[in-house]
């Protein structure tokens, strides 16, 4: 089945009919957020050990393993820290944020713009946090 756009799904959802019929017609279109699986895929693609990812992300290995196993749901900032530790491309970061139900990074917002700037340049978590603090923004 061809994937429907968000606009197409929204139009269909807002048209007359029951929610259950909408859901049954579009079950294949639904996104099941699984941040842990996506982060694990990124770890494998980057060929980084879990220990290295945890260290570079500023999280404990126990926390990282809990996220990867689906036992913990990271906050938006924790997802960003993990993505920075994984040296994930901006497109992957945006995709993961949306998949987890968070707003993607918005270059019109100062804090998000600083994070995007650092991600695009492969900066480390301490470098990005330093830039955030210099600009009076909350660190990750």
Structure overview:
This protein folds into two domains: 1-30, no CATH class; 35-134, 434 Repressor (Amino-terminal Domain) (Orthogonal Bundle). It is globular and about 50 Å long. The protein contains nine helices and no strands. With 140 residues, the protein is mostly helical.
Features:
140 residues; mainly alpha; 2 domains; single chain; 61% helix; 434 Repressor (Amino-terminal Domain); 0% strand; globular
Helices and strands, with pairings:
Layout: H1 6-14, H2 19-26, H3 35-46, H4 50-57, H5 61-68, H6 76-85, H7 90-99, H8 110-120, H9 125-134
Give me a quick take on this structure:
The protein is mostly helical and 140 residues long. The chain is built from nine helices and no strands. The relative contact order is 0.11.
| Relative helix content | 55-70%
Rg calc: 18 Å
In total, the number of domains comes to 2
User: Mind describing the biggest β-sheet?
Assistant: none
| SS elements, strand count | 0
Query: What would the principal axes of the Cα set say about the shape?
Result: globular
Beta-strand content: under 5%
CATH architectural designation of the largest domain: Orthogonal Bundle
Poorly predicted tracts of residues: none
Structural class: mainly alpha
In DSSP terms (H or I, runs of 4 or more residues), the helix count works out at 9
Mean pLDDT: 92
Q: Output the CATH homologous superfamily of the largest domain.
A: lambda repressor-like DNA-binding domains
Distance between the termini: 40 Å
In N-to-C order, the SSE pattern is HHHHHHHHH
CATH fold-level label of the largest domain: 434 Repressor (Amino-terminal Domain)
CATH class of the largest domain: Mainly Alpha
